[in-house]
Input
Amino acid sequence: MYSVSIIGSGNVAARLGHLFRKKKFELAGIYSRNKNAVNALAVELKVPVVQQLKDLPQADLTILAVSDNAITHVASHMPVNSKTLVVHTSGITTLDALMPHERRGVFYPLQSLSKNKETNWDNVPLLIETTNRKDEELLQSVALQLTLPCHILNYEQRQYIHLAAVFANNFTNRLYAIAFEIAGMHGLDPTLLTPLIQETAAKIKCMSPHDAQTGPARRRDSATIEQHVDLLRQHSQYRQLYEIMSRSIIEALASESA
Amino acid sequence: MYSVSIIGSGNVAARLGHLFRKKKFELAGIYSRNKNAVNALAVELKVPVVQQLKDLPQADLTILAVSDNAITHVASHMPVNSKTLVVHTSGITTLDALMPHERRGVFYPLQSLSKNKETNWDNVPLLIETTNRKDEELLQSVALQLTLPCHILNYEQRQYIHLAAVFANNFTNRLYAIAFEIAGMHGLDPTLLTPLIQETAAKIKCMSPHDAQTGPARRRDSATIEQHVDLLRQHSQYRQLYEIMSRSIIEALASESA
Output
């Protein structure tokens, strides 16, 4: 079984740490600038905390689960050692951000990770990139032990899947928040929407989102659209969003029939 | 057990019909203008088809599961009979659209219903409105037999929950479609996004969407936002949507800290 060192104490570090622990990897050490967070996480993971980056224990795999803009800084201040494969977890950062390390890789799980919620890892794709075939095999073997399907993506592909994920996850969640807010403003329990939200997500497991599209814009029901726009007359930002989303649905239909 | 007649042959008529059948209601008859669709549905539901609206058999409950703009027309052309409670299934239509019927009601299940996919009815709220207490009790009793939680909403509340549902369901589904399209355009299997979509929806069962918000805009990571906007330079519509959604996330944060 491979040994792993972790840098970071945020959502990604926490969820990956728990996954590695559960799958019986050897956790060699953990480091983070955020001492309170890393101490708490280290207790959960039963892994030794290191106080300085330069003291990070050598492991088969070192995971930089830090924010995108910290990757270069951390990579340049940690021990350089050809015995460890150094990977980051970013969807939008190149391999070369990990210079001067000779063995560099990307280890990007395409999932929404929250520190305070256990992650459903079923079928979560692990998107990897390396500089050489041997390290590729190492990451594939790690994925196998984590029981995650593994895909090799180059930088351009990874950027686009990351962008797609922002639409599917971050923007979708923002729509949930707006829907909850609209309900709450009118004295309605927002959790009335929960089964609808679950079903909307479940549908795409058996039909394409294109085929699953419903609603006033899909039906070109301009009376309902106008009524909704009128309900939002006090909320220009949501009204604008309503109009743009509806237009997007209508234009997708039009380009289909064209 | 109550008897039910159904008007319509679309998504709502089909899914409600199956639910009533499963819960052992007596299906008295079904009518739709669309003869092919209603014949096929009638076979599935084992219910007699009526050829003309005026021949619709009298039942305890008559459900108009037709498009919003057809409700008034159908209501005015069907038999008037005080022994049946006539309900529509629309989130955005008043009770009075069902004139001249004396016993009018709304029977609005807050769920995304697709003809070709079985519906998960667990905890789906049934939103009702009636003109009198006795019919309210009848619908509450029907909801109980369907094992659906039942809520009495007035027209204004129903309009707003319908609007919220458009954000949570129709617009969310459109974001899924855009995400799938972005992935597909770059040779990536869109189903890579499926676990992420499921997890995003599952999260709101245990935390508010406000607390669940992640992503570049949530982190005010302007470098990533700029990079994503640049990736969308050929797709002005998606770029505009990206910018508006990101701004919406950033402004929600700002109003929180204000």
In short: Chain A is about 45% helix and 15% strand.
